[in-house]
Amino acid sequence: MNKITIIGGGNIGLSLARGLVNRAYCHAEDITLTRRNLKLLNEEAAKGFKVSDNNKAAVYDANVIVLAVLPQQLKKVLEEIAPAVSPEKQIVVSVISGVTCADVRDKLGNNIQVIRAMPNTAIAIGQSMTCIASDNASDEQLERVTRMFETVGSVVTINEDLMTSATALCACGIAFFLRAIRAASQGGVEIGFHAHDALKMAVQTAKGAADLLLQTQSHPESEIDKVTSPKGCTIAGLNEMEHNGFSSAFIKGIKLSALKAGGLYND
Q1: What is the spatial distance between Cα 244 and Cα 89, in angstroms, rounded to a whole number?
Q2: Which of the two ends of the chain, N or C, has the fewest CB atoms closer than 10 A to its terminal CB?
Q3: What is this protein for, i.e. what is its function (predicted)?
Q4: Nearest Cα residue to 182 out of 159, 201, 165
Q5: Nearest one of 47, 48, 46, 39 to 9, comparing CA atoms
Q6: Across the strands, what pairs with 46?
Q7: Annotation-wise, does 82 bind a ligand?
Q8: How far apart are CA 87 and CA 16, in angstroms?
Q9: Over 70: is that where the pLDDT of 133 sits?
Q10: Does 46 count as an annotated binding residue?
């Protein structure tokens, strides 16, 4: 039986809930969503999700408790739910940037099993890249959480000390790739396409590039070599982008996001 309580009905919490239901992992009535302002969950309530503004009451019947609040809100939330958490029957999954398993146990007790997960917003359409880690969860619970997130995308298990890096590459990374697609569409407008056509073309080209790598298991450079002929237009464009710092800017952005993600909880 999968009874899931998601504390924090923001973007990631709602994306996870919708994704799990869309992919038939569970039913809407199996998921409880919490938020301080219940009016913001009216749409979810209409779809059959249970909603609550009482975190403590919401976790009593849950098998899986998902923490999806802002890092600054977590300490108060953990203090609220601590009396209701049962280590024997519950697993806690945190999707909060910069919060360690030890941080969660510090408030809930050392005998509670905690798994960190870092999905991204593509979880709502079953296309998340989720990284998971734990320092004390059993293999059985790790498998359970892996299966849960595999229904809404791909999962990689990593060491916990890499979770802030995963935040930058996968969670923040959604925004980075979206910005790259936006830039490509703007370039399309500059060379003569209407905005809606340019965006459609950029989106499908980006999707094709990603699927090409996923399905052929090849390296980006080997695919790039196939479309760069001597003195051609592709290599000219690539080199112009590199001269202006394209790869360097992308790498620096990921590194800065990782640095920022590591300090969110304590800040």
Answers
A1: 55
A2: N
A3: Catalyzes the reduction of 1-pyrroline-5-carboxylate (PCA) to L-proline.
A4: 201
A5: 39
A6: none
A7: no
A8: 23
A9: yes
A10: no
pLDDT in tens, 35-49: 988 889 999 999 999
Residues 79/107, Cβ–Cβ less than 8 Å: yes
CATH classification number, 4-158, choose in 3.40.50.2000, 3.40.50.720, 3.40.50.300, 3.30.70.270: 3.40.50.720
Q: Where are the domains of the chain?
A: 4-158, 167-262
> Strands across the sheet with 4-7, in order?
50-52, 31-34, 4-7, 64-67, 91-94, 113-118, 128-133, 153-157
Query: How far is the C-alpha of 220 from the C-alpha of 251, rounded, in Å?
Result: 16
Query: Is residue 87 a known part of a binding site?
Result: no
pLDDT tens, position by position, 137-188: 999 999 999 999 999 999 999 999 999 899 999 999 999 999 999 999 999 9
Superfamily of domain 167-262: ProC C-terminal domain-like (1.10.3730.10)
Average pLDDT over residues 70-78: 91
Confirm whether residue 69 is marked as ligand binding.
Answer: yes
* Mean residue pLDDT across the chain: 93
According to the annotation, is 71 in a ligand binding site?
Answer: yes
Q: Which residue has better confidence, 9 or 51?
A: 51
pLDDT of residue 85: 94
